[in-house]
Amino acid sequence: MDKIHLNMCSVALSFLTALLLSNFQSINGYPDGAPERACEKMNPGHGEQSLNSNSPYEIKLDRVFVRGANRIKIQVVSTKPSTHKLTGLLIMVKKPAAGKRETFGAFGTFDPKSSSDDLKTISCFGMPGSGLTHSDNKAKTALSFEWIAPNDTSAEYELHATLVRDYNSFWSDIVYPQKIHVSSDAPVSSSGILETNTITLCILTVAVVVVPLFSF
């Protein structure tokens, strides 16, 4: 009987420890980057839905027409740097039909060497380098990085972004308003002029009771 009781206590203690760790993570988020499972719904796991206000961040691309294996320079910039700094993000570029596990499609890859130490790549849907996320939760006013187009001769892609101000304030799965065109007859180099669009696509608000320390 003593051994049975000890085994039951051990199982209960393991379950309680796992539960506490899970709650701690849900409260504090992911300070070292979004997990790969977040790629499917582009949701940071802070709540069921994101804010429905206009995003205070701009996403800038130096071009939207590119040849396969060529690069697009991307910037994420706060329009209110004194009050709305970024603490977390998840970026993915994919074909409109891709995103389910049974229809991977082509994603292209992000170049980790083109960004600062604040960012890192992750494998969305098992595709290495197809996602980009933060590597720490320090507040940032601007980030820049490069996306390498896949070897398509004619295809359209969408840029999806989840941008986090803090645990209670985030904009989930917002879509860049222009498609990225990968084509064999696209210009080889950029004009050098950034095509600027403010992301305004939002979801619904969510009420969060717990006020945590970290985001994502």
From TrEMBL:
According to its UniProt record, where is this protein mainly located? Answer: secreted
- Keyword Cell division (UniProt): no
Protein family according to the UniProt entry: Belongs to the insect defense protein family.
Report the leader peptide range: 1-29
Q: Which species does the entry assign this protein to?
A: Orchesella dallaii
Alphabetic keyword roster: Antibiotic, Antimicrobial, Immunity, Innate immunity, Secreted, Signal
CDD domains referenced in this protein's UniProt entry, alphabetically: Reeler
Q: What is this protein called?
A: Reelin domain-containing protein
Localisation: Secreted
Keyword presence, Signal: yes
Where does the record place the Reelin domain? Answer: 20-195
- A Pfam family matched by this chain, by name? Reeler
- Sorted alphabetically, which PROSITE patterns does this protein's record hold? REELIN (PS51019)
